[in-house]
Each structure stands twice: as structure tokens, then as C-alpha cells.
Amino acid sequence: MQLAQKIIIADDHPLFRAALRQAVTQAVPGVEIVEADSHAAVQEAVVQHSDADLVLLDIHMPGTHGFSGLVFLRGQHPGMPVIVVSGSEETHVMKRAIDYGASGFIPKSSPLETISAAITAVLEGEEWLPQELTDNMDDVSEEDQQFAAALVSLTPQQFRVLTMLTEGLLNKQIAYELSVSEATIKAHVTAILRKLGVHSRTQAVIAAQRLGVEPPKTEG
Fold first, then answer.
1. CATH code, domain carrying 74
2. Which residue segment(s) compose the domain that 186 sits in?
3. In-domain check, residue 1
4. Looking at the structure, do residues 20 and 72 belong to the same domain, yes or no?
5. Do both 67 and 151 map to the same domain?
6. What is the DSSP annotation of 130-181?
7. Distance separating alpha carbons of residues 78 and 155, to the nearest angstrom
8. Rounded to two decimals, what is the model's pTM?
9. 151-204: per-residue pLDDT in tens?
């Protein structure tokens, strides 16, 4: 008897998670759905559900900076396909998502039928992109690729610390947020700088910002 497929929906907006749940159910009858509303929740979900068949990932979630969450997820769990679902619909953003390891890119403006078709295609081992994406886009720079590879070497806790550094938090503030000592954060920062091949917090933040994507503008 074939086991039911399992899909992780990662988005911090409850209404859009509900829409994705409807699309997933439409594409995969009997599917088991796991939801996450932050990068930390995604990391916990993929550890607890390492047999998941697919992750639907919003790149604009708490705890991530642009493509950093995608890169980290693909590095830590390379066998788990990821579809980026985003309100950022520029073609260069879609192309970069694929370059960083996504199996597909679904604009949030897509109708449910399109989202369902994309999910089905990726579950069948294909790559899915909107028709408007062209092949003449610039590739990700070698420097960005090297940084992405270095990012994968970070532990989940070091990744969280780096994310907080990009938000401008001090060691004392990060220690408070993570409920650890300031000395522990200093040790994490030292390890982060070494792994990323940089010599200061500022350089680490600048490097991380290369993976950034401007969040989509909201109306109102």
C-alpha cells in the first residue's frame, strides 16, 4: 500500500496558507499537510517530517533574508524538493530561485489551478516555472554562489544568529531572544565569520544581503 504524500506549507500569512492548502488538496488527494509560519518552524518541520515529499516556501518569512532560507533549506535537506511561492514576481527573482536550488517558482497571483499544476509537475520530478520566464536572464554571480555554499555550512542556530545580525541586533539582544548567554553568541559570531570567510560582522551582513530580495509592495 502506497503511503500518502506529505507536503510542508511554509508561509507566515494564514489566509495564503489556507489557499495553498486548498491547492495542495486539489492536486494531491489524501495528502498530509504540515504548516509552518517562520524559518524556525520550517526547520523544525523538515526535521520532524524528513519524509516530506515537497516544501512550498515563501521567501519573505520571519527569520530569513531573501533567498537565505531557500539556500539553507536546500543545503541541509538536499533530497527534499522546494517550490518557492512568492509575491515577488520579477523574472530575475524567479531565475535566481531556480539557480539557488528551487524546483519551481509560483507567483502568489497564480490561480489555484496553476498552483495545483505546478505542485503536480514537481512531485513528478519536473521543474516548473511561469511561461513568462525567459532563458536570457543573467546567471547568479560566482561570488553569490560561493557565499550560498558557505551559508549551507552554518548550523541552524548560527543561521538564526546571522539573520539577527542582518536585522541590526547586538550580541546582548540576540542572547536575550535565543535565551542563551552573550558568550555563546560571541562564539557563534566567531564561527559564522570563519565559515563565511569574512573578518567582521559588517562584512557578514553585507554578504548576507547579496541574497536579499525586496519584499512585494502591499496595497493600502
1. 3.40.50.2300
2. 142-209
3. no
4. yes
5. no
6. -TT--S-SPPPPHHHHHHHHHHHTS-HHHHHHHHHHHTT--HHHHHHHHTS-
7. 15
8. 0.74
9. 878 888 888 898 888 888 999 999 999 999 999 999 999 999 999 888 999 888
